[in-house]
């Protein structure tokens, strides 16, 4: 299994760099960021707090790191034209010397679309537009020219050079609904969702059935997941921490207890566990929590 670190882009840039470089130097496999322009209205964070932009962040981190894989969870196609995103992805893959994983999704957060005047559209339209965008991305990343007369995108003999360093730059799709899982079955190299083990086991079974319908080997699609983490010295208060963030998947307790959740994720077919820093504190406290996971939990699963 891989263990990756998700850095919060609402913290000062120096703290972003500190967390990512710590992960780079202590054996973490990847680094993720969220692609949003502001926090979700009604969520746990105020919408007007500062929030860095994801494409600039990942390009900078590509130059600041040498080993970890880099990705977004996930670029929203509603505000990322796939042709422009493909050009960015190829460039950043060169900056990172082939370490980019291109994470994409159909878009969902209403307040950023409303404030910036970006059409979101109903769910069905979003899924259709998203799958068409994947055709654009794959064509521009892989082919000499791309032509598409689509409902949402029109390209005519479109070129995109240079191509990525990776012969096949992988696409990660964030999804959990039935129609989006169908898109994953047809188009994804990797699939991601927030989860606890029972939830992702059920969704992975749905994805496997969608692969069967679409003639795809489900073993070709890697699975990653994330939850909130509280690394504690005792399990006595673990349940109270979990209840404190009700509504989001969360694991809490000693490294031994966290390892039980990781084992259950593994048994559900998860290939990569992603740890956000949202609940890990800052500075030395965050570094200590990351070290306890990578040193006391991860080795048994690698």
How does this model look, in words?
This protein is α/β, with parallel strands linked by helices. 42% of the residues lie in helices and 19% in strands. The chain is built from 10 helices and 13 strands. Strand 11 (228-231), helix 8 and strand 12 (250-253) form a beta-alpha-beta unit.
Summarize this structure as a short list of keywords or feature phrases:
302 residues; alpha/beta; nine-stranded parallel sheet; two-stranded antiparallel sheet; 10 helices; 13 strands; 42% helix; globular
Give the topology, please.
Blueprint: E1 2-6, H1 13-25, E2 30-34, H2 54-64, E3 69-73, E4 75-76, H3 82-95, E5 102-105, H4 110-116, H5 123-142, E6 146-149, E7 154-158, E8 171-174, H6 178-187, E9 190-194, H7 197-213, E10 222-226, E11 228-231, H8 238-244, E12 250-253, H9 255-267, E13 272-276, H10 283-297
Parallel strand pairs: 1-2, 1-13, 2-3, 4-5, 5-8, 8-9, 9-10, 10-13, 11-12
Antiparallel strand pairs: 6-7
